């Protein structure tokens, strides 16, 4: 008898390797052992964001020229409060007096920290190809992206409630999961193809009692290439998908992608180590 290989046979060997949430948009986040998810996304994820007081747009490292220093900060949830660790090692609390002034000084630009997404909130998504070619401080095309078009509620996610990526894709690109800011990292067995997330679109992923639907490949911006805390710059984190995995991404066109966006079909708690089944 021959042995079965490939992604279909390997589906029973998919597992949740790690879970992540990012309490403040474009800051580093935290790893957790259990993550509750519902139709609005992961609990505590992208629930705060900085607003540029001059333009009214959401601050995002997608516009690296202005906001890449956000990735030198990290945010964690302790009790019911968000704590922000600043590059100098000091910590501030998101609801403390003077937090806007603290963050404005850090970024050399007036900002306000909000806990609810304004209607029609947008951010600048600098053209990633132009950034790679011209440098982080160059003036490049930066079309506006309206946030959370596939997500109910008032979080600051880019598009969909959740984002997942496989270890096969990460290994192919040769970089850390942290750069792609996923909620779920899914372990794959040897031989599982990179970018298989492309083929999950429309399918249901079952994780314990939770069910999520794959909405489509996740388009990549310049963020994975930037410094992330102690991680140095990594241009290949974008250049490799540019070369290997340019696919149709929703109605945004053909773009470099890695990972998949997810919508929550049946809510509940996801735990690290749980098996992931594809329906």
TrEMBL record:
UniProt superkingdom: Bacteria
InterPro entries found in the cross-reference section: MoCF_Sase_C (IPR005302), MOCOS_middle (IPR005303), Pyrv_Knase-like_insert_dom_sf (IPR011037)
Keywords: Plasmid
Molecular function GO labels: catalytic activity; molybdenum ion binding; pyridoxal phosphate binding
Residue ranges of every copy of the MOSC domain listed in the record: 125-279
UniProt keyword Protease present: no
Name recorded for this polypeptide: Molybdenum cofactor biosysynthesis protein
């Amino acid at each position: 008898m021959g042995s079965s290989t490939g992604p279909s046979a390997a589906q029973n060997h998919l597992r949740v390797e790690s879970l992540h949430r990012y309490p403040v948009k474009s800051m580093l986040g935290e790893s957790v052992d259990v993550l509750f998810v519902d139709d609005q996304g992961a609990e505590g994820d992208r629930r705060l964001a900085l607003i540029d007081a001059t333009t009214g747009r959401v601050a995002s490292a997608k516009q690296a020229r202005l906001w890449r220093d956000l990735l030198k900060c990290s945010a964690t949830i302790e009790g019911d409060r968000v704590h922000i660790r600043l590059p100098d090692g000091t910590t501030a609390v998101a609801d403390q007096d003077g937090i806007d002034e603290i963050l404005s000084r850090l970024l050399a630009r007036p900002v306000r920290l909000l806990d609810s997404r304004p209607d029609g909130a947008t951010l600048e998504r600098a053209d990633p190809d132009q950034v790679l070619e011209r440098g982080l401080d160059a003036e490049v095309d930066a079309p506006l992206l309206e946030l959370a078009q596939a997500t109910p509620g008032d979080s600051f996610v880019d598009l969909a409630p959740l984002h997942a990526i496989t270890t096969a894709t990460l290994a192919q690109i040769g970089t850390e999961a942290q750069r792609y800011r996923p909620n779920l990292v899914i372990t794959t067995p040897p031989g599982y193809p990179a970018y298989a997330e492309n083929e999950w679109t429309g399918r249901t992923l079952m994780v314990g009692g939770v069910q999520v639907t794959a909405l489509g490949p996740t388009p990549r911006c310049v963020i994975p290439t930037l410094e992330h805390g102690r991680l140095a710059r990594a241009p290949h984190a974008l250049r490799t998908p540019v070369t290997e995995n340019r696919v149709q991404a929703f109605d945004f066109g053909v773009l470099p992608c890695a990972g998949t966006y997810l919508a929550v079909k049946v809510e509940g708690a996801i735990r690290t180590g749980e098996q992931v089944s594809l329906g």
